[in-house]
Specification:
single chain, alpha+beta, Outer membrane efflux proteins (OEP), 5 strands, disordered C terminus
């Protein structure tokens, strides 16, 4: 009897509602981070895939699940047991020594064996999907922390320049106060601004330290690399073309694959519950040897073979078994709802990332235009200063505003690059886990087909 598997709902849009890329360069889903053209980042991702401890743990668990899944047939193979025990007869006159060889063969009829096969395959698929999901998360986390580290280093450099300008502004404000050209409020304002800049600088250094620590943990290192302090911020996201369509999420997103495996597991549980409604048939046999220890002799009738079928018919617990079937049907419905939710969540995350890419591009354009205006104004201020029509103190405010504009542009570029990271994480982008070698697959198939007896207790 075959186990019915429900059809998975695949309600996905035909295309993305947002623009799916603004360049001609195609990005490989399995190596999307290489589109950033950063050799150091590429090396860090490869190192994380080799040395990340979470990935190592997940790979071990996946290997264990595959080993268990390859042995699902053992439950329905003949099992042999050997037993020996002393026995006394009912009249308490003689004592016997019994030795027996017993055999039990569960046939797995009415869909029981098929449900076990489906359950084993679903468990292995679920472990594989979780392992792939972890690979996606690790790759995205490495890229994100590396980019955050670069942005933090860039902000530290800009804040350091701002702190120098604020120190000079504070000094000149004090000079102006001493010469009766300024007010105490001007001096206090310059001092407060400098202290706030120093506080922002300390916060940004803390952010850089956190990103470096997180990156070291992802790589399985006990400490960050001192050379990471020289990581430069990204100069902007290069143009790219998104080749994936919404239907591709059904095979690339690990959480959708997990939801699919959960549907198969629910179908397997329902199949087992339905098979329990039918009589369970198994074959059994034994060979008993009895030796009379009291009389110290044996006869031919002490060697007794026996064999025959065993039928387990559900009677008194029929209602409980029916309840298990109804619970299994509800489990199928819940698993299908979870699958639909996983698909909708995947599409929503991709659309959100595409929207963020478009909005951040507009934000960068506006901030960059503001930076150019401030740059022109500073150029005019420098000309006035060279002609003696303006003092250095008058130009400090414009120079600081230009640094703030540069900081805003750098942060916007970093945010857009992080939206690119979120996009390919939402698409399920990461290298696939290594598959078993052909020799291992052949060995596993041989193990499944081998008729090895199963040891059972007498």
């Amino acid at each position: 009897m075959s186990v019915p598997v429900p059809e998975l709902p695949a309600q996905v849009p035909g295309a993305w509602s947002q623009a799916a890329g603004e360049g001609a360069r195609a990005v490989d889903l399995r190596s999307w981070w290489t589109a950033l053209d950063d050799p150091r980042l590429n090396a860090l991702v490869e190192e994380a895939l080799r040395r990340n401890l979470d990935l190592e743990q997940s790979a071990r668990l996946l290997q264990g699940e595959r080993e268990v899944a390859g042995r699902w047939r053992s439950r329905y193979l003949p099992g042999f047991g050997v037993g020996a025990r002393p026995v006394q007869d009912a009249q308490a006159k003689d004592s016997y020594f019994h030795a027996s060889i017993d055999m039990v063969w569960e046939l797995g009829l009415f869909g029981a064996a098929e449900s076990s096969r489906l359950q084993a395959g679903a468990d292995a698929d679920l472990a594989a999907a979780r392992e792939q999901g972890l690979r996606v998360s690790v790759v995205a986390a490495v890229v994100r922390n590396y980019l955050d580290l670069g942005v933090a280093n860039g902000q530290i450099a800009l804040l350091t320049q701002m702190a120098e300008l604020d120190r000079e502004a504070e000094r000149l404000a004090q000079v102006r106060l001493n010469t009766r050209l300024g007010t105490p409020q001007d001096a206090d304002t310059a001092s407060v601004r400098r202290q706030r800049t120093l506080a922002a600088l300390a916060s940004m250094r803390l952010a850089a330290d956190r990103s470096a620590r997180a990156l070291a943990l992802l790589l399985g290192r006990d400490a960050p690399d001192p050379g990471w302090s020289a990581v430069a911020p990204s100069q902007g996201l290069p143009g790219f073309a998104l080749g994936e369509v919404p239907a591709d999420l059904l095979r690339t997103r690990p959480d959708i694959r997990e939801a699919e495996a959960e549907v198969l597991r629910a179908a397997a549980r329902l199949g087992m519950a339905r098979s329990a409604l039918y009589p369970r048939l198994s074959l059994g046999g034994s060979v008993l040897y009895a030796y009379n220890m009291t009389q110290n002799h044996r006869s031919n009738n002490n060697f007794v073979p026996a064999g025959g079928p065993t039928i387990d018919i559900p009677l008194w617990d029929w209602g409980a078994r029916q309840a298990q079937v109804k619970a299994g049907e509800q489990g199928i419905a819940a698993a299908l709802a979870g699958y639909r939710k996983a698909v909708l969540s995947g599409v929503s995350e991709v659309e959100e990332s595409l929207s963020a890419l478009a909005r951040e591009r507009e934000r960068i354009a506006a901030l960059d235009e503001a930076r150019r205006v401030l740059d022109r104004r500073n150029g005019s201020q420098r000309k006035l200063a060279s002609l003696g029509l303006s003092s250095p103190y008058d130009g400090l405010e414009g120079r600081r505003a230009l640094l703030e504009a540069q900081s805003d542009v750098a942060l916007a570029r970093g945010a857009r690059t992080l939206a690119f990271v979120a996009l390919y994480k939402a698409l399920g982008g990461a290298p696939l886990a290594p598959q078993p070698q052909p020799e291992q697959q052949a060995q596993q198939q041989a193990q499944e087909q081998a008729q090895q007896p199963r040891q059972v207790r007498p």
